Request: fold
Amino acid sequence: MTLYSSLFEKNELPIRIAHDEQLAAFKIADSLSKHLPSVSVTRPIVFVCIGTDRSTGDSLGPLIGTLLSEKNISPFHVYGTLDEPIHALNLEDKLKEIHEKHHNPYIIGIDACLGRMKSVGVIQIGDGPVKPGSGVKKELPPVGNIHITGIVNISGFMEFLVLQNTRLSLVLNMAKIISKGIYHTSLRYMHSAKLEEYEIKEEPV
Reply:
């Protein structure tokens, strides 16, 4: 049974969570926990955090990756940090590296995006891959079995400049909430693994 499942009724993707709403991180964890493969499937769980620190708005992914790298989120794997970002120039190579290193990985793509004014600050968890670069008209490979995106600014006009002029305060606060949600997801995942191991040991011979 998923911890906190009685608190949040929405199980279907996509879901939208305001980064500053009450229990936002736990709502992220609740949704992710419901949509990750079962512990018994033993697929490696890989978070691919896309973006660059050269653009404030586009730094959401590598900020999340850096915050996660400072936590113990075993058995999850994280790629894309401020020191080693995953961006348009190396995305294909990094995805190839991930698939070579992990057999049949379950990938969660993380990226910043632009949206309507009233949606700025909203975190979205959706089914299927994230499509990096679409906001600035770049053709890049899709990433993820599911995805997490954070709406960091307004779309519609000169998206590249909009990303460049996004407030770091908002991006950092969103990154903290998302990384906290992933951290709590890892705790639940490890707890499920321990329960399953205990149940196997307790089975009668």
